[in-house]
Every structure is written in C-alpha cells, then in structure tokens.
Amino acid sequence: MIGKLGKKLGVVEDPRTFKLKPLVDMETLPAIPSNWRYAHDLHHVPMFANDQFGCCTCASNGHRIVAQEFASQQKELQVNDADVLEPEGVFGGRVLDVPGDGG
User: Fold this and answer.
1) What are 32-91's pLDDT values in tens digits?
2) What is residue 101's DSSP assignment?
3) Sign of the alpha-carbon torsion through 95, 97, 98, 102
4) Which domain covers residue 80, as residue numbers?
5) Is 26 within the bounds of a domain?
6) Which of 49, 67, 89, 98 has the lowest tally of Cβ within 10 angstroms?
7) Shortest CA distance to 87 belongs to which of 57, 66, 49?
C-alpha cells in the first residue's frame, strides 16, 4: 500500500545509534520497585468541582498540579475550583451550569 502510515516492519539498525548496554553493569543496578507513587504522602486531593460540572480534563490538571507541588516541596500552591474551571470556560466554550460527563 502506497503512503501507509505507522511503524515500519522489521528492525532498522543504524551504526550511529548510541548503545547504553556497554556502559551499564546490569548486576549492580538496584531492583525496580514493584510499587511507586509520585506523591505517596498526599492523602487528600480535592474534587475540583468535577462532581458538579463534569470537567474531568480540567480537574485532572488540577490534581497534577497539586501532586507535583506536594512532591517538589518547593512552594505550596493554592489551587481552588475557580482556577481549575477557568480553562473549561476559555477553551471548552461550554456553559458551566450545564452538566458535562457526570464527573
């Protein structure tokens, strides 16, 4: 098929490709943890009005910001429902008092 998109079949070997294996001793690497959580001590994450307006994309961005700020411990950023819902009105164009996906 002409013009088919996607991954080409087969392996393409390129001698210019940097190989990490000769530089790493696999026996001395620590074991990969079976469970890891980015902000493991963060136990309370607000709903960010997702239960009222159903804008899970905006709420998930608010959750990401809270988790990153908590994990970095550089500063405490106060994020509220209005901050999280602002992009929905700007980019979504949807009236916020009309239910979305149900949260």
Assistant:
1) 888 877 777 777 788 888 888 778 888 888 888 888 888 887 666 778 888 888 876 655
2) S
3) positive
4) 47-93
5) no
6) 98
7) 57
Q: Are 69 and 76 in contact, with CB atoms under 8 Å apart?
A: yes
Question: Can you read off the two tokens belonging to residue 9?
Answer: 């079949």
Q: How many domains does the chain have?
A: 1
Closest alpha carbon to 94 in 52, 57, 55, 51: 55
- List CB contacts of 84: < 8 A, sequence separation 6 or more: 48, 49, 55, 58, 59, 61, 62
Residue with tokens 């209005």: 82
**Residue 52: both structure tokens together:** 């009222």
CB 75 within 8 A of CB 69: yes
- Using left for φ > 0, alpha for ψ between -120 and 50, and beta otherwise, residue 3 falls in left
Take residue 17 and report the two structure tokens written for it.
């490709």
CA distance 90 to 87: 5
In a domain, 89, yes or no: yes
pLDDT tens digits for range 1-25: 566 666 667 777 888 988 888 898 9
